Amino acid sequence: xxxxxxxxxxxxxxxxxxxxxxxxxxxxxxxxxxxxxxxxxxxxxxxxxxxxxxxxxxxxxxxxxxxxxxxxxxxxxxxxxxxxxxxxxxxxxxxxxxxxxxxxxxxxxxxxxxxxxxxxxxxxxxxxxxxxxxxxxxxxxxxxxxxxxxxxxxxxxxxxxxxxxxxxxxxxxxxxxxxxxxxxxxxxxxxxxxxxxxxxxxxxxxxxxxxxxxxxxxxxxxxxxxxxxxxxxxxxxxxxxxxxxxxxxxxxxxxxxxxxxxxxxxxxxxxxxxxxxxxxxxxxxxxxxxxxxxxxxxx
Length: 299
Ligand code: C2E
Ligand code: MG
Ligand code: MG
Ligand code: MG
Hints:
binds magnesium ion; alpha/beta; binds ligand C2E; single chain; eight-stranded mixed barrel; about 300 residues
């Protein structure tokens, strides 16, 4: 019996190894296909941006939007940014891709300002490679100049890991951008390991609390405690607080009770194409006001 068991284990081990090897090949295949198709998509201008509203907790008004990369490929179908960005970072596509995102987002916000007379700040996610590239500030300046967007209507979202990779460089670039009037925020806060004392020195304006914490605030005491602590820390540092991934009235009530400033999430709206966002905004503040009305008493 022992021999039989050993034999089975060996067989299984061998099979597992085969599966593993197969996974590696298909993963490598997938990556090279992605690389090839993405290069083409950028050249042929077949990428797009979706925009997700940010809502003021106190008034329920739309206070701005976050631009999020979308790519539907004929061969691969819908590919998510979580898959696109690492590939683009590895194969050097992130610079042209990032520049395209910046130009497109700035143009969108600028057009809305010209058409409606209303400012609509737009936030763009920035990869570490972009931040650390020496042409970064020039890319931002070009996107602003080309679109004629006032710098205070552009917000850059950087993750903690991006900021800690090269803190001196980050400090220098962020200071320059801040002096230009661009807004800066830390994205996915709580998931990285930024040195909290660094926060004090970085010229950032806002903290976005990661949605993994928001998921738990209603029924996980630890998550609730973390969010509470992050909000008080942010307040002490004079930072503006945004809660990501708010999906329920209960989560919104929690953030309202702690006096978070803004939220984003499916409760109000998923990220939507530019035209759909314009229609949503044109419907005006009624939608926003309804979402702001607390249906449940804060706990
Ligand atoms: P992120 O910047 O933290 O963006 C928020 C993500 O959460 C988005 O996913 C958004 O669709 C999703 N989300 C928003 N509200 C909810 C909600 O209520 N529930 C849930 N479950 N999810 C929600 P998405 O669009 O798939 O983007 C994923 C990440 O990819 C982004 O996370 C960002 O880090 C990165 N990314 C997206 N676009 C770009 C880009 O243009 N450049 C760079 N460098 N990164 C990007
Ligand atoms: Mg973001
Ligand atoms: Mg985030
Ligand atoms: Mg994220």
